[in-house]
Design brief:
Elements: H1 3-23, H2 28-34, H3 41-67, H4 70-122
Helix pairs in contact: 2-4, 3-4
């Protein structure tokens, strides 16, 4: 075989693999579940529990804010804002960790593909 035909075969193979990957369904549940596959899976569980607890705190503080006497509204309003900010930070960390682990997995796949291609070229 010539070098041109080898390149065409490799490009066709890569295009087929890319088409296969594009057809895979990537729903939100799969993206969020992928965050647990990394090395920080236990911490991710704790972060989700913390996010739920903070959501409950937001609802409780919001209820207290709207039902409290005017003298107490400042107290409950500050607690509401603090709980909200803590939840925003927690959710940002969850998304960042999810995308970090997805990026690392893609880099590993790319590394394996490059190693496979370099191994094929030697033969």
């Amino acid at each position: 075989m010539t070098l041109d035909s080898d390149i065409k075969q490799q490009l066709a193979k890569q295009a087929a693999e890319l088409d296969k990957l594009m057809r895979e369904e990537q729903g939100l549940d799969k993206v969020l579940a992928s965050g647990f596959k990394g090395g920080l899976g236990a911490i991710m569980t704790i972060a989700y529990i913390l996010a739920v607890l903070l959501a409950l705190a937001i609802f409780y503080c919001g209820y207290q804010f709207f039902t409290a006497e005017p003298e107490q509204q400042l107290y409950w309003g500050v607690l509401l804002l603090l709980a909200f900010q803590a939840q925003v930070g927690t959710k940002l960390w969850i998304w960042l960790e999810t995308h970090r682990s997805a990026t690392l997995r893609e880099l590993k796949r790319l590394e394996l593909a490059v190693a496979e291609l370099s191994g094929q070229q030697r033969h």
